[in-house]
């Protein structure tokens, strides 16, 4: 980690802390964090889904096709659960912070 990385990190933390002083700033930071988390989880899920669908093209036997189908179903289930969990957690935190 170079010196300018540390300075950029300190600047970013200072900006977040100054925004969080206001009640609506806290809500904004929570929504932004949850949104970034959803985008990252969605990108990872999509990349893994492409890999599992690509396994169908490489499959030669019936067992390999079943394995590729199971992997695709598992990726879809885990991705759906993780994205829903992050969204639910964000809503829970938002309800505890929001004034309404």
Please indicate the percent range of residues in DSSP E strands (runs of 2 or more): under 5%
- The low-pLDDT segments are none
Distance between the termini: 42 Å
Global Rg? 20 Å
Q: What is the molecular shape? A: elongated
Number of helices, where a helix is a run of at least 4 consecutive DSSP H or I residues: 3
> Describe the biggest sheet?
none
The residue fraction in helices comes out at: over 70%
Mean pLDDT: 92
- Structure classification: mainly alpha
Q: How many strands in all?
A: 0
How are the SSEs ordered, and which strands pair?
Elements: H1 3-19, H2 23-58, H3 62-97
What does this structure look like?
The mean pLDDT is 92. The protein starts with a helix and ends with a helix. It is mostly helical and 100 residues long. It is elongated and about 60 Å long. The longest helix is centred in the middle third of the chain and has 36 residues. It contains three helices and no strands. The chain has one domain.
């Amino acid at each position: 980690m170079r010196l300018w990385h540390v300075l950029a990190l300190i600047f970013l933390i200072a900006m977040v802390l100054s925004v969080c002083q206001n009640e609506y700033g806290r809500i904004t930071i929570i929504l932004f964090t949850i949104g970034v988390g959803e985008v990252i989880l969605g990108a990872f899920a999509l990349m893994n889904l492409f890999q599992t669908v690509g396994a169908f093209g490489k499959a030669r036997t019936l067992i390999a096709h079943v394995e590729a189908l199971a992997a695709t179903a598992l990726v879809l289930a885990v991705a759906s659960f993780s994205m829903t969990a992050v969204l639910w957690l964000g809503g829970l935190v938002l309800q505890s912070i929001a004034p309404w």
